[in-house]
Amino acid sequence: MHRRSLFGLAAAGFxxxxxxxxxxxxxxxxMVVPLxxxxxxxxxxxxxxxxxxxxxxxxxxxxxRAGAGGMIGTEAVKNAAPDGxxxxxxxxxFIQTPVVFRRWPYTPDDFAPIGKFGTTPLPxxxxxxxxxxxxxxxxxxxxxxxxxxGTYSPGSSGHAFAQALSDLEGLEMxxxxxxxxxxxxxxxxxxxxxCAFHSMTGSGEAIRSGRIRPLATLGRNGIPSxxxxxxxxxxxxxxxxxxGGFIGLFAPARTPEPAQAAxxxxxxxxxxxxxxxxxxxxxxxxxxYLGPAEFRxxxxxxxxFWQGLVDRLGLTVEG
Length: 319
What we know:
about 20% strand, six-stranded mixed sheet
């Protein structure tokens, strides 16, 4: 019995090194973007993935999983192994789409906020061939027409605020939903959709080249590179047109603390890099880094705002 006990201890001793886990991370990390390639969210994610990979010492691989306004990719991350090797880069649709769909395949509590990236102006734009140069002219031109407007996902800011504009001005605009900004922009440029809210990151080149014309923007501070474009609030629209969304990074809620800490540090370092900040300025994206606790409070505040706005507009989508 004594010899067998000694053998058991020896076997355990030999097995222990084989069972010990290597420090995190020891393999590539998958960053899920729940919207298609080529849109603003995809561009932002790729901007931070590379410097994060340098800090973490492992590749950070972008995986686009679009559908249902971002809910498909987000739910996939929720259901992934909470080991730090599957993370989520998302925009405010993270909250917006489930509220509008009245369907929650996940809740914010299913995720651990890693950090806030920032926000971006969202100008309301028309095709260049439409004979208007101001929002007032657009409203007059649109009266009596049954216009479609594009949205980069159902339940998004672009959806809610275009509908609010339509309702406030007594227009008859109808939403046409896309799986992301890039396909929406193609239909606008192709003449199939006359107007939509765009991001400066995903559509800035088309805006600056005059292929689409910005008439007014959400938010309070305007577009840094185009100060001549008024905000909706400055034009007398309700204060809620001044609310900005968020962009940020998340992990499944049960991700181990050491892995969360490593991700938080790598993301924070990426957001401090001069080359990243310079690229954001070029895209009219406003960096607003927040750590996990502050970002969680920001999300909670935004969720309260968004639920109230959706209730006020009576905005729902069947899906």
